[in-house]
Amino acid sequence: MTEDFAEAKQGPNAWAQAIAAVVVVGGLGAGLLVLQGVSEQNSGDRGPATCSSSKATQATKDTGSSRHVSGAQLCTALNRSDLPALLGTPAEQAETAGGNESSVKLAGGTEIATPEATVTLKTYSVKISASYDHLPVAQMAELLNTAQKRTVLGHPAVLYSDRTIAITFNGDGKTDTGPGGIARSLLVAQDTKDGGGSYEIAIWRQDSVVPDDAALLSVAESVLPTIPGWVNG
Higher pLDDT residue, 56 or 189? Predict the structure, then answer.
């Protein structure tokens, strides 16, 4: 049996992890996929997958002792009952949902929190992440040739595309990689003045069709205000 996956390349944030985790392209049965160590599978007559975690769900702390949102909290915000409708696939439901605590340690010793969460449906996968790197979104946009500046809920934002990497797991235990589909990502400043730090929402399709920007913006406008600590514009 051959199982295909697609994994997104690293986005513009040099301190954060890749903007998209794992995309199920096809042929994968329930129970075989674990997203970033925190997930629950859905099959048969079971209801939509719910967020669960074997790790602490409290917000993490950086070296400055300011509290940050956790991967579990991001998963709760993203895995909402109307997510399929927001994506334009109302008949679907969450098949996997998980959050993850992570951080990046810079050369100078500073550790930056980069919590994230991913929800996978039959057609779409959606990932949300937060980065507390203190870099303005406007500065990040300079690194992207195709960046489109936006304002989302009163916050400066950038819309851009990223290419995914397809990973094929063969029956002989070997893997092959190749170009995958397109992920569309929205990078949103954590405050209205773009003082540093960002949230990022990325969507991509299991069939490698280019995602719908309207769906991405709809998800962002609905999910972002429900994240603990979100600053209204």
Answer: 189
